[in-house]
Write a sequence for this structure.
C-alpha cells in the first residue's frame, strides 16, 4: 500500500485513513496497540513517517512568513552586491547577545567606600548617593548590601580627624587607626570579603599631599616611601588582601613588596596606581576626604594628562618591582591608556572610574539630560572593552543591582 500511486494528495488525510485501517486490523486480530505519546499524536511510527516522506507525501507545516512591506515611496533599487553585511549579526537581541565580545558582571566591580570615626553616615554633597560611613554600622551595612548582589571587593578611604594629621603622616601606620580597625571588623563579619586599601599619606598629612613636604615645597620621594612601607605592613597585618599605593612615588612598589615579604605577607597583593594622572576629575573625592592640598598641586608626582608614552615607563617599572595589578586613573577619559597597558602587559588591568566621572553622570541624570542608568552601564562596559579586568566605581552597588535585574 505504501508503494502504490493511489495515495491521496493530502498527506494528512492519507495518514489518518491509513492509521485507522491499521488499528482496525489489529483490533480484529486481538492485538493491543501500545503506541508512544509521539506515535499516538502523529498516528505513525517514525519508520512509517519516513516512508511517507520518501513517497513524496510531506506532512503539512506553516507557510513561510510574508515579506514585510517597505513604506510607500521607498525607491525600487537593485540590491548592493556585498559579500559582507555586518548587520546580519546585529539583527536581533539574541544575535547581539550571541556575538557580544565584552561582558560585565558584579565580579568585575570594586566598591570604593568612605569611612569615618562617627556613628552617623554623612552625605557627600558633591557625590549624590555616597556617604562617609560610620565604620561600625553604616559601612558594615553597605558591604552587606553589595555582597547580596555579587560585589565582594571593596576599597577603603578614611576621613581622618584633623587632630591626627601631621607633616609626616604617622597616623597612616597606626595599627589601631581607623583603617586597620575597620579591616579587622570587616574580616570578622565577612571572612571572604576582598579588601583593597589605599597606600598614600594624603588622608593623614596636614599638608594634604601624598608625601612628606620639604620646607621649599618639594615632595620627598624616598622618605615618603619609607612611611608607605610601614603603612602597607600595618594594613596587611590587619587583614588587607590587596594594598594599593596611589602616591606615585618612584620605587615604592618594590620597596613595599620587600617590606611585606620580610614580615611574612607574601600572599598580600599589590595593586599599583601605575598611570595616575594629575586630573581635574578628582575634585569630589577630595571633598569626601577633606584632603585638598594646603598649597601647590600634585603635578610633580602625578602624571601629565598630555602624556601617553610615559605610561609605558611606569608600567615597566611596576612590573619589574613586583606589582600584581596595574591601575589607570581616571578611567573613561583615559581609555587609550587602559588599552595601552592592556596591549603591553599580561598583568590584570584595573580602571578607576573616579568621583568626577560619577558626579557628572549623576548630575546629568538628575537634570534629565541623560538616562542615568543607561549611561552608567555603557560607561562601565566601555572601560571593560578598553581592557580593564576590574573597575573601581562608586556605581558598583547600583550597577550590580541592574545586572541582577533589580529595579531602581
Amino acid at each position: 500500500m505504501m508503494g502504490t500511486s493511489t495515495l491521496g494528495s493530502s498527506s494528512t488525510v492519507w495518514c489518518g485513513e491509513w492509521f485507522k485501517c491499521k488499528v482496525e486490523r489489529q483490533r480484529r486480530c486481538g492485538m493491543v496497540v501500545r503506541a508512544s505519546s509521539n506515535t499516538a499524536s502523529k498516528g505513525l511510527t517514525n519508520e512509517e513517517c519516513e516512508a511517507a516522506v520518501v513517497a513524496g507525501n510531506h506532512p503539512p507545516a506553516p507557510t513561510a512568513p510574508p515579506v514585510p512591506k517597505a513604506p510607500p515611496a521607498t525607491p525600487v533599487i537593485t540590491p548592493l552586491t556585498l559579500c559582507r553585511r555586518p548587520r546580519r549579526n546585529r539583527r536581533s537581541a539574541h544575535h547581539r547577545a550571541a556575538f557580544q565580545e565584552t561582558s560585565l558582571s558584579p565580579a568585575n566591580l570594586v566598591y570604593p567606600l568612605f569611612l569615618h570615626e562617627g556613628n552617623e553616615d554623612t552625605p557627600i554633597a558633591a557625590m549624590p548617593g555616597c556617604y562617609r560611613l560610620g565604620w561600625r554600622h553604616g559601612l558594615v551595612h553597605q558591604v552587606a548590601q553589595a555582597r547580596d548582589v555579587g560585589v565582594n571587593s571593596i576599597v577603603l578611604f578614611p576621613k581622618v580627624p584633623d587632630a591626627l594629621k601631621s607633616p609626616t603622616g604617622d597616623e597612616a601606620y597606626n595599627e589601631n587607626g581607623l583603617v586597620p580597625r575597620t579591616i579587622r571588623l570587616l574580616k570578622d563579619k565577612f571572612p571572604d570579603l576582598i579588601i583593597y586599601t589605599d597606600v598614600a599619606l594624603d588622608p593623614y598629612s596636614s599638608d594634604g599631599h601624598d608625601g612628606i613636604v620639604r620646607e621649599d615645597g618639594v615632595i620627598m620621594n624616598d622618605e615618603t616611601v619609607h612611611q608607605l612601607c610601614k603603612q602597607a605592613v600595618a594594613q596587611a597585618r590587619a587583614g588587607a588582601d590587596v594594598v594599593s599605593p596611589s602616591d606615585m612615588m618612584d620605587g615604592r612598589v618594590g620597596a613595599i613588596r620587600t617590606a611585606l615579604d620580610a614580615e611574612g605577607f607574601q600572599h598580600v597583593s599589590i595593586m599599583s596606581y601605575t598611570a595616575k594622572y594629575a586630573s581635574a576629575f578628582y575634585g569630589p573625592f577630595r571633598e569626601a576626604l577633606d584632603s585638598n592640598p594646603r598649597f601647590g598641586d600634585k603635578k610633580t608626582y602625578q602624571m601629565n594628562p598630555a602624556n601617553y608614552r610615559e605610561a609605558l615607563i611606569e608600567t615597566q617599572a611596576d612590573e619589574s618591582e613586583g606589582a600584581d595589578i596595574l591601575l589607570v586613573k581616571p578611567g573613561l577619559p583615559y581609555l587609550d591608556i587602559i588599552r595601552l597597558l592592556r596591549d603591553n602587559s599580561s598583568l590584570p588591568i584595573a580602571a578607576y572610574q573616579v568621583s568626577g566621572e560619577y558626579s557628572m553622570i549623576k548630575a546629568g541624570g538628575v537634570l534629565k539630560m541623560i538616562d542615568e542608568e543607561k549611561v552608567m552601564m555603557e560607561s562601565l562596559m566601555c572601560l571593560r572593552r578598553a581592557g580593564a579586568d576590574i573597575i573601581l566605581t562608586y556605581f558598583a552597588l547600583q550597577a550590580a543591582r541592574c545586572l541582577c535585574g533589580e529595579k531602581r
The radius of gyration is 33 Å. The longest strand covers residues 109-116. DSSP finds 14 helices and twelve strands in the chain. The CA atoms of residues 70 and 408 lie 39 Å apart.
